[in-house]
Fold:
Amino acid sequence: MESPYGSELFLKKIWPDFTSHFQNSSSSASYQADVLEFMRIYQMDFLQLNSAVAEDYFLQMKKKTEEGSIKPSTMAKKFRELHSLAGFIEEQKAHYKIPDTFCDYFYPYLKHVAKVEQYAKSIPMEYIDRLFQAAQENYMAYSIFALLQRVGLSSTEITELKLEYFTAYDNGVYATVPGRESPCFIPEDVFVILEQYISKRREHEYLFCNSRGNKLNTMYISRLMRRYTELAGIPNYSAESLRNTCAITMFSYHATPEQVARQMGVTQIQIRRYQNMSYRDSLAREANHLVKVKIEPP
Structure:
């Protein structure tokens, strides 16, 4: 490796020792490219790493991810590589006679980077807009897509929904979703769409059913996605990709990993209403308010 910013200790001793265990040249080349990029950005030797530089690098990569110039998986790869190198150096400080102040400052960001990567397979917003335009004549499909994209419910969770699971408090509507520890906040724009759908649906035990009155399954939702992605003239994205967009959008508006995880789960409508009473846990509601994207009724 050659770099005008790297010290002789790092370039001639530490780097060869670090890469000696690599089994193939492609891994070494990937690490080298990202390490050289890092030193070039900050015009410093890797051994000069400090917490402020690591934080700035994280913010720069995060911004590039939000802008779409790099993929979340690329950001995660860069951080894992730099973390691995920094961790190796930290463990060998005594051997290389490096000051005790050096440590792996990339480590604290790995959890957030992993969360971003987890929801990497999402759909560009312009395609989502076309998908909703294509489905606007089908109130059930439109509602399902809204629950996937805005609320972050999974296909399985959507198929299990019943009307009695929804409760309107003074501070918003919440749904008791089977399998989740706490109620899930339903944004106002999504609830308006659900109201339109419910006003036209046939009475049924479950919120969504097929033409024969049977409860939906996940394959039915997959077929809906295939049908309307084709009508919209966009790639055949999955329901999971549409759901992941909820997380990506929340991250883009600076929601915390905990808020995103919580949201994703880990009229004359017969919904119980509690007057002068607010749901005690507003975390999900506040997290969703960070997201500026809204869906218009069909």
Notes: The mean pLDDT is 82.
